[in-house]
Amino acid sequence: MKRLREEMVNAINHPGLKLLLKIIVSLGLLIFLFSRINISELLRVLLFAHPSYIFVVLMVYLIGQFIISIRWALLTRPLGY
């Protein structure tokens, strides 16, 4: 039983399998989301949106991602990463 568990953990930790699962889940979520929205309406709203609003939103997002990356670096540093 222990050996079977170790084999399952090793299979799950395989980098190729992890990547494949990430791709499948990401594509599934994108398909789900895009099937629920009106693409032409989304494009119309984006085309008529004020460029400064889009710029501010992108900057807030990028700053947030930068802060999250710093947080993860600080959290994983004691673990040797």
Give an overview of the whole structure:
With 81 residues, the chain is mainly α. The protein folds into two domains: 1-36; 38-81. 84% of the residues lie in helices and 0% in strands. It has four helices and no strands. It has helices at 2-12, 15-35, 39-48, 51-76. It is flat, with a radius of gyration of 20 Å. The model has no long low-confidence stretch (mean pLDDT 90).
Characteristic key phrases:
4 helices; mainly alpha; 81 residues; 0% strand
Put the structure in a nutshell.
The protein is mostly helical and 81 residues long.
Summarize the topology.
Layout: H1 2-12, H2 15-35, H3 39-48, H4 51-76
Along the chain, the helix and strand elements come as HHHH
Gyration radius, in Å: 20 Å
Tell me the number of strands.
Answer: 0
Averaged pLDDT: 90
Cα separation of the termini = 32 Å
Shape: flat
How much of the residues is beta strand, in percent? Answer: under 5%
Query: Helical element count?
Result: 4
- Structural class, please? mainly alpha
Runs in which pLDDT lies below 50 for 5 or more consecutive residues are: none
User: Into which percent range does the helicity of residues fall?
Assistant: over 70%
Q: Please, how many domains?
A: 2
Largest sheet, if any? none
